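so my prof wants the structure for this chain in the tokens format not the other one, which i didnt know existed until like an hour ago. anyway here's the sequence
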Amino acid sequence: MKAVVLLSGGLDSTTAAAMARREQWELYGLTVKYGQVHSAELAAARRVADALGFVRHVELDVNLAAFGGSSLLVGTDQQPSSPSVPKDRALDGAGIPSTYVPARNTVFLSLALGWAEVVGAERIVIGVNALDYSGYPDCRPDYIAAFEYLASLATRVGVEGGTLRVFAPLLQLSKAGIIRLGTELGVDYGLTHSCYDPLPDGRPCGHCDSCRLRAKGFEEAGIPDPLTA
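here's what i got, hopefully its the right format
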């Protein structure tokens, strides 16, 4: 089978891609340049796509920074960025943090859906996680199920009786569980990037939600993080 992988270069999307490769799917990687404040994740996505033997890797420009609304987006004169990336906040705190990018996964999945129809892919792979995450509404199982239903209605393959599934294998795994699984699959997490606000030299800040969730996962898995070891 063929699969379109939404590849951010992060720990989760890399693990999900490795799971799809284990199933011997042909992998087509889609990385979206959405106006994020740094390019480190783009470089990580290129490394991962090369390491996992993707058939093709596309970087697509869809500049969500034109809308604003997130501290992960570059500010413009018309749309200033949201407050700076939050650091050292309670990971189980209520509310949706400023790092949420409005409708990002819906936009990304829609783009992946279009490409999947063109290449004849039967799966869209996304590394969303509903346990150890920052509270984003588009990382929940009911959202993924709803988008899969939409895909069955909105595509030629769906109307003609074909199947196009959203493969989200990490939904119910903890970050530690994801890391253990990826390690078993031979994932080199040294290729990945997770930090929302890296230092000028590219090293992770260690204080944003993503850094802290990653650190917590490696600690609980009992495995050293190659980025900080």
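also thought this was worth mentioning. The longest strand covers residues 26-33.
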